[in-house]
Amino acid sequence: MIAPDTAHLILEAAESLRGHYQDCHLCPWDCGVDRTKGGVGPCRTRAYASLSAYAVHHGEEPPISGTRGTGNLFFFGCPMSCAYCQNFQISQVSPLDERTTPEAIAGAILDLAGRGVHNTGLVSVSHVLPDVLMGMYHAAMKGVRLPVVYNTNSFEQVHVLRHLKGIVDIYLADLRYSDDAEARQYSRTRNYVGSARRAILEMADQVGPSLQRDHDGIAVKGLLVRLLVLPNDIAGIESSLHFLRQELGTGVTISIMAQYQPMYKAVDMPLISRRIYAGEYLRALNLAESMGFEDVYVQTMDAADNYVPDFRDGEVRFSGNPDYLSNSMTKGAEKGSDTRR
Fold first, then answer.
1. What are residue 70's DSSP bridge partners?
2. What sign does the dihedral 170-176-179-184 (CA atoms) show?
3. Which member of 158, 187, 297, 338 has the greatest number of CB atoms within 10 A?
């Protein structure tokens, strides 16, 4: 929570993590680069954050976006290099001479708070977390009170996440792969599966394995795990579901996503150069149902048409918003269907 009474926690976390800029271990690459002297690791980022855009976003899962939206902050760079990244305009590059000061980050948070968002969403920020936390601290000292959504690819360090206990209210966590070979090929990362699974268990330990919602259905605390269905079962959804059931139980909140669209380098990679078939998505839904998962968000098959970000000109625009069938399982995943059971 960004709030005056949590400001001391946020400042303590920022100061504790700042040393990683000199010997970086903020992500599982453990590159050890001294970013303060101009060194750049896999995240392509120096020792400061560069805010690419911020926006009121209505396209997250219903308890996150609600009716007033979530206030998402997007930063340049990323420790992963996904061939199909929808945010490739900012994640795969970083302007090495453009720093966004913590005070400016705080200004963005203040602006979003003034627009009435339900929460503030930090999108893939592990590589610039010290500066982001300082921005949150300055916002808290100016009286902002907003829940924090940590929107992550889960390629995270457990020792870093532990600094966020009591600060992050909601973890919105991808579980992208169940095979490290696929992760290396399509996201140019290493040890993804073990890193992501350990990170998700730490998140669940901090905030619980499922979303807690208020009387309006808005998330106030908890974990939501996202499973993006990729063509040709590249994601290994079944193994990920087995892991979640075994470690967190069938009450864990999950989102099974149909919105994959081949972008960036994916158009030239045969196994992921197409959208998913309805049958591939239905298989994932049926697996979740057969394993007894109780709190599941699903999408319609036209979701890939309705969520394409564009980060040109220092702003972010979306072609639309994915259609979620809130908290229900469905067999009717055909385009436009909203069949529930």
1. 57, 119
2. negative
3. 297
- Give whole-number Cα distances, 86 to 71, 83, 197, 310, in Å: 18, 9, 23, 9
106: its two tokens: 């705080």
The answer on pLDDT for 334 being more than 60 is no
| Position 98 confidence tier, pLDDT thresholds 50, 70, 90 | confident
User: Residue 53: which of 10, 3, 112, 11 has the closest Cα?
Assistant: 112
Structure tokens at 56: 């009121």
Identity of the amino acid at 237 = I
Q: Are 229 and 281 in contact (CB under 8 A)?
A: yes
Please tell me the total number of residues recorded for the chain in this structure.
341
Phi-psi domain of 307 (left: phi exceeds 0; alpha: psi -120 through 50; beta: other): beta
Maximum Cα–Cα distance across the chain? 57
Is the separation of the CB atoms in 132 and 163 below 8 Å? no
- Cα separations in angstroms, 88 against 68, 75, 110, 122, 127: 27, 11, 27, 17, 16
Predicted TM-score (pTM) of this structure: 0.92
CB within 8 A of 60, min separation 6: which ones? 70, 121, 149, 151, 172
pLDDT at 94: 62
Ordered domains of the chain (ranges, CATH): 4-325 (3.20.20.70)
Q: Given a cut of 50, is residue 291 above it in pLDDT?
A: yes
DSSP assignment of 62-99: HHHHTTT-EEEEEES--S---TT-TTHHHHT---TT-P
Q: What is the mean pLDDT of residues 233-241?
A: 98
pLDDT at 131 over 90: yes
